């Protein structure tokens, strides 16, 4: 991730010097192919910039509001020639749907993500050093539900070929559409995850979104997932980091059970991808080991409660136990995993390896 940040910084220096963010400043003698190449490069770099900011801790170096660059033309590559568009050429993709339609849709999603990052950053950072200003344009943001409804409406309006991932065939055009469908599905789920996190969702909501994301990936043929490559791994590690943050506030038995299920589903999915993505080797095993360590800690606390005959909560440092009050023993031993049960606070040393578990760089 650090290396990508370095190269993005270099790229944005070139953009600023050459005014690549404004098509009106481009050389007048560019041919149609070079124009399309510039547009594809520009918006591809933008989506990478936003993506690294969502997954990592970088900043978005270029705001889409300052851009004046068209989207790439929604046409197959062979239809773009030295003489411009050739309408007499038939599209190789089924139903005249080109893969660039899906590519541009993903760009739309990242432009939406850029604006959700303002709230996402404020929520994720617990140590705010920048002074607040008395007036801000973000005091009355659009609600998460309104944004999500708009995103899902956009998704439903896509052609069917960009919403279904078919098995890999010998038809290159169909495979490309299915790859775009997989990429679109992954990005839609990323938008959902960021929006719910921005709204300060509870553990159950986070688990539901994370589980939907994992199952969406699991339904996609592995060949397309491996083709997405590194960004996919960062999608998955982003899920793990979001779920891992819930441990710091303490969890009930029910909440931990939900998170545990999603983490094991995540480990299973990653294990199927590790063969084709060598740099991720061992991530699934590390995740399962981390879950086993937390399970062992939980069992020890249950044994402690049973031996003392108390309903207890482990303190923030994990150094002791304290009774939670009279009349709760029956509830603690009833075996019912509900949200009224006491919160367990996990020791720092148990969670300090969380970043290492998801380090797949």
From TrEMBL:
GO BP annotations, alphabetical order: DNA-templated transcription
Superkingdom, taxonomy of origin: Eukaryota
Entry's Gene Ontology molecular function annotations: DNA binding; DNA-binding transcription factor activity; zinc ion binding
Protein name as catalogued: Xylanolytic transcriptional activator regulatory domain-containing protein
Alphabetically ordered keywords of this record: Nucleus
Xylanolytic transcriptional activator regulatory domain sequence ranges: 19-117
PANTHER family: TRANSCRIPTION FACTOR PDR1, ZN(II)2CYS6 TRANSCRIPTION FACTOR (EUROFUNG)
Renumbered residue ranges of the record's region Disordered: 311-342
InterPro entries per the UniProt record, alphabetical: AtrR-like (IPR050987), XnlR_reg_dom (IPR007219)
């Amino acid at each position: 991730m650090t290396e990508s940040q370095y190269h993005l910084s270099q790229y944005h220096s070139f953009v600023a010097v050459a005014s690549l963010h404004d098509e009106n400043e481009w050389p007048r003698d560019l041919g149609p192919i070079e124009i399309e190449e510039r547009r594809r490069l520009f918006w591809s770099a933008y989506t990478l910039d936003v993506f690294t900011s969502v997954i990592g801790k970088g900043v978005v170096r270029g705001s889409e509001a300052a851009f004046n660059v068209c989207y790439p033309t929604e046409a197959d590559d062979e239809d773009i020639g030295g003489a411009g568009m050739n309408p007499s050429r038939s599209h190789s993709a089924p139903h005249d749907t080109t893969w660039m339609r899906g590519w541009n849709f993903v760009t739309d999603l990242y432009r939406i993500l850029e604006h959700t990052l303002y709230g996402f950053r404020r929520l994720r950072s617990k140590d705010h050093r920048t002074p607040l200003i008395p007036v801000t344009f973000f005091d009355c943001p659009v609600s998460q539900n309104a944004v999500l409804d708009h995103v899902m409406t956009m998704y439903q309006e896509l052609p069917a070929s960009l919403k279904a991932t078919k098995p890999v065939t010998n038809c290159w055009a169909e495979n490309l559409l299915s790859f775009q469908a997989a990429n679109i599905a992954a990005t839609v789920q990323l938008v959902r995850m960021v929006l719910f996190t921005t709204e300060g969702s509870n553990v159950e909501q986070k688990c539901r979104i994370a589980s939907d994301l994992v199952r969406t990936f699991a339904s996609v043929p592995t060949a397309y997932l491996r083709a997405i490559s590194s960004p996919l791994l960062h999608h998955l590690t982003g899920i793990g980091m979001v779920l891992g943050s819930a441990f710091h506030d303490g969890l009930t038995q029910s909440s931990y059970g939900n998170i545990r299920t999603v983490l094991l589903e995540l480990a299973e999915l990653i294990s199927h991808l590790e063969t084709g993505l060598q740099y991720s080797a061992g991530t699934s095993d590390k995740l399962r080991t981390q879950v086993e360590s937390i399970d062992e800690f939980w069992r020890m606390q249950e044994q402690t409660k049973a031996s003392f005959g108390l309903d207890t909560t482990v303190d923030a440092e994990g150094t002791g136990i304290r009774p939670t009050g009279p009349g709760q023993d029956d509830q603690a031993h009833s075996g019912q995993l509900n949200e009224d049960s006491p919160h367990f606070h996990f020791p720092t040393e148990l969670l300090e390896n969380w970043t290492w578990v998801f380090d797949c760089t």
